[in-house]
Amino acid sequence: MVVLMFASPGCDRRKLKNATDANAADKTRLPSEFSATAESAKKEKEPDNPADAYLKAYLLVRESEKTTNREESIHRLQDACACFQAVKSKFPDWKPAMVDGRIAKTRESLDMLLPPGHH
Question: Which end of the chain has the lower number of beta carbons within 10 A, N or C?
């Protein structure tokens, strides 16, 4: 937040200094606000709910199907496979057949895009 202050004739310079000091105090709080934002972003990357984590991985697969860039598609499939693996390891009792099936399909898609020997 940027605050512009202009000293006009008749302006009390003490009030101006106090307002500037208050603005400086706000700046000292920014790092904690940013760290809270970074923490919430981290939580978004690692869902605590298996359905949310699965959906995130599934959407990565769908994105990989829509892109025309081969490298981008490979990257998204690799990320999706890692997410599915995380669901499997973090929530082993949550729909294991469905998760295993999706891992297999995602690996199959990767196999078609990656050159032999790059797994």
Answer: N
